[in-house]
Structure formats: structure tokens, C-alpha cells
Amino acid sequence: MHIITNQLISYLQLFRPISEDDAGLITKTFKARSLTEGEYLFYPNDVCNELFFICKGILRIIVQNDTGNLVTHFFLKENQFCTILKSFNNRVIAMEGIQAACDVEVLAVNRTMLLSLYEKIPYLKSLIDQITQQALLDKIEIRNSYLGHDSTARYKLFLMQQADIAMRVPLSDVASYLGITQQSLSRIRKNLR
Fold it and tell me: For residues 182, 185, 41 and 36, what is the CA-based torsion angle, rounded to 10 degrees?
């Protein structure tokens, strides 16, 4: 577990120095959790009370569409924070859920503990806010890059932009993310060989 929390500290230190005392407080506050593929970190239709830092694996943000199928909105991987931000910040019910797209190791902190940590380490809030805002902008940029392309072009873009994810998550999740059926994705993959 100590190695995992060191991963969070190392990541934060890419943006600013973290003192040993502050690192100790952060390490004590975030708790390690492991999930297997398909397990939920957060179920839809509830208030998201936790912030996660992904140490290993890939999470997917999912929502149920009008026909009752789960649709992948986005994938998040190592060294990224994950939560349902609007629900976490505004204390509102989220329609989205967070699910392990493969085996995952995360560090989790509940909202109350995080707010307490922010009081003890005042710069941490602006640091995490800055990181999550940049990640949000990156997600929007990636999603927008798929707009206006046919299924084959979207899949090719996905392979170029998110190849590491393509190799680690089920094809059904990739198809859902790209807005195509699994059968269509299989055909596209066959034609690209």
C-alpha cells in the first residue's frame, strides 16, 4: 500500500514540491482499494462522496441510455483523478457511475476527509482543482476529436489517441465509447487487418 500512496505523492510532486509532513498527511488520508473488471466504485443514482486516484488499471464513466444499455462516456487511466465532479462538488445525485474496465487499484478519499485535508494543507485544493480542470479539458478535446467522423475513422482515432486503453479494456466497452455496435466494431477491426 505504501508504494501505491507514493505514486500519488510522486504524481503531485510533478506540479509542486510536497513536504514530508504533507506527504504523510496525504498518505494517511487516501485509502487503497482494489477492484476486478466490472466492479463498481460508484453506482449511478446516488451522490458521489469520494475522489479516486488511479494507480493501476482503467476506470470507465458510464451512464444508462434510454434503451437501458450502459454507455461508456469516458475512460480514465493511471495517474488520473476520478469522481463524478458535479455530484461530488454540489452534493447532487449523479446519473453516471464509475466502473472498473479492467482490474484496478485506486486510492480513495471521502469528501469529508478531503475537505479536512484541504484545511491542513491549503495549497492542495488548488493543486487538485488545477489537475482535474486540465483533465476535464483534455477529455473534452479527445471527445470532440471524434465528432463528424464515421465509425471507422473514430476507431482509428481511438487507436492513435488512446492505444494503451484499446489494448486493456473489453471490445464491448470500446464500442460503447465510440457509439457503435460491437458487431460493427468487429467488422471494422477485421477490415483494418
Answer: 90
